[in-house]
Amino acid sequence: MKKSLILGAAAMAALVAVPQANAADVKIGGYYMMRAVNQDTTLTENDALDDTQGWFQRMQVDINAKISDKTSAHLHTRILGSSDTIEGATAGNAQDSDGAMDVKRVWMETEVYGVTVKAGNMPLSINDKFLFKDDGGSYGTILLAKNFGSVTAVALNVRADEGATVGANADTDDANVYGVSLIGKSGGISYQGTWAHLAIEEDYGTYPDSTNNWIALTVGADMGGVKLTGTGIYELGHDQDGTVADTLEDGGFMGALRVKGKTGFGGWNAYGFYAAESFNHPVETYTSSRVNQGLSKTWFQGGPGGTVLMESWATGDGGTSNKNNLQNLMGAGVGVNVKAGSWSIKPAIDYVTVVEDAGVNSKSAFGGSLYLTTTLDKGATFSLVGLYVSPSDDSDTVDIGAMQALQAEFKVKF
Known about the structure:
Distance between the termini: 34 Å
Radius of gyration: 22 Å
Oligomer: single chain
Order of helices and strands: HEHEEEEEEEEEEEEEHEEHHEEEEE
Number of strands: 21
């Protein structure tokens, strides 16, 4: 599947808080980012494959048009794509490597009989990024939202994959998610409860004529200046007319907790998560997309030339486990943000291990990141970045090596 499976919380919240305007209002914004990279993002000890060195850049332009109090349209495009290389003098230009702009998101929103309607390719995120969070792209969706006092009810259809639009299989090769979510706050406790149902039709891909379901609950509270957000997700199990792997038939559970607070010198944050061996994450299992859960920079960095060192460890050691980004793993991490003059210093450490060993080459890994960032001018920042992951080497046949990245980056927002 090329697109996501699940709905969105950040987008949902935006549905009910539209700025007032008396006339059409078109705003143009975006950013330019350049990153110089020298890194090794593979697990195996192989100098011929390990090294990545280059300059990478991205230019994103966002156009948001507010036509009325209830109606708007949005276009987010990358003039220079997700991670374009800055070429040598003989290259002649700095165009996108495939010669075309990368349209990341395009959608509209309006209101019909008091119900907010959004349609198109839009950013989606739900249940504190653990059930689903996009990585900067978009997902074809029709979304309906309605306020009932302090509760917002959301219903939607996400096109996991369209398949053919003409021909014999045009009506039998789609994959869809149908979802319902309730978002609200009561007595200082915020919550989101979600049910998501995946339906894969008979002529679609790897798991034809099949279904799966997830039930998720996220609860958040502020306790004396410390913000806690907990999420639990239960997967009922894959149901298919025919043969399916036992690991897909079994339901499973994952849970996660985020904590963050402030100090006199800045702030701190921590996380922990557990995903059972039998848990099948909707994105990791059924699509080629990653789930950007935002745990730490070693899991998902983002930006041009960005690294995913922990994710590379979780998915790339050649083992036989269903170990993946949020499957058959448990992990924890902590980070701080220290202000020192004009600089922001952000060190963080991570640890992850396999829940149930099923032949993986590396059963655990320590990691960490260090960001040094300063403001150069209004909207302009400069950062020095270091990332490192040290995997355990539990294999008798494969030499597992450390992964690391050193980077310098410029970013201008406009």
